[in-house]
Design a protein that fits this description.
Shape: flat
Radius of gyration: 16 Å
Number of domains: 1
Structural class: mainly alpha
Largest sheet: none
Strand content: under 5%
Oligomer: single chain
C-alpha cells in the first residue's frame, strides 16, 4: 500500500463521517426522521463522538447546540494531524 493510497483512504473515510454528522444534525430538525431506522443507525454511529463534545460545551441560551460545529472542526484537525504523523513515519 502506498502512502498516497493511505492518505486517500483517510480522506474518504473522514469525509463520509463528516457528512454523516451533518446529516444527523439536520435530522434533528425533523424529529420523526430521527426516530426512523436510518435515524437510529446514524445516532449509533455519530452520537458517541458528539457526546464527548456535548459534555464540555453547554448549549447557548439553553437551546442552541454548537458542539457539532466544534466536533467537525476537531475531526478536520485530527485528520490533518494523523496525515502529518503518517508522513513523518513513511517519508
Amino acid at each position: 500500500m502506498t502512502v498516497e493510497l493511505i492518505f486517500s483512504l483517510i480522506d474518504i473515510l473522514s469525509s463520509i463521517y463528516y457528512f454523516l454528522i451533518i446529516i444527523y444534525v439536520l435530522m434533528s430538525w425533523l424529529p420523526n426522521v430521527r426516530e426512523s431506522f436510518v435515524g437510529e443507525w446514524l445516532g449509533k454511529l455519530v452520537e458517541p463522538y458528539l457526546s464527548v463534545f456535548r459534555r464540555f460545551i453547554p448549549p447557548i441560551m439553553g437551546m442552541i447546540d454548537i458542539s457539532p460545529i466544534i466536533a467537525l472542526i476537531a475531526l478536520r484537525y485530527a485528520v490533518l494531524g494523523l496525515k502529518y504523523i503518517l508522513s513523518l513515519v513513511f517519508y
